[in-house]
Amino acid sequence: MVKNSTPNEFTRIVALVKKWFRNTPKNNASLWDSVIREKTASWSASADSRDLAPRVLIATSMGGYQQGALLESVLAVALTLRGAKVEILLCDEFLPACQLTKIGGNPVEQFLNSPKQARCGKCFAYGKELFSPLGLPVHRFSSFVTYEQSLEVKKIAAEISIDDIDNYQWNGLAIGEHAKAGALRYYASGNLSSEPHAGPVLRRYLESALLTAMVTSNLLEKKTYDVVCFNHGIYVPQGIIGEVCRQKNVAVVNWNPSYRKSTFIFSHGDSYHHTMITEPVEVWENINLTESVEKKTMDYLKSRWHGTEDWIWFHERPESSLNKIASEIGVDFSRPVIGLLTNVMWDAQLHYRSNAFKDMLDWVVQTINYFADRPDLQLLIRVHPAEIRGVVPSRQPIVREIQKLFPQLPSNIFVIPPESQVSTYAAMQECDSVLIYNTKTGIEISSLGIPVIVAGEAWIRNKGFSLDATSPAEYFQILDRLPLKKRMDEVALERARKYAYHFFFRRMIQLSFFEEQLKVSIQSMEELLPGRSKGLDIICEGILNGAPFIYPDELDVQ
Question: What is the pTM of this model?
Answer without folding.
Answer: 0.90
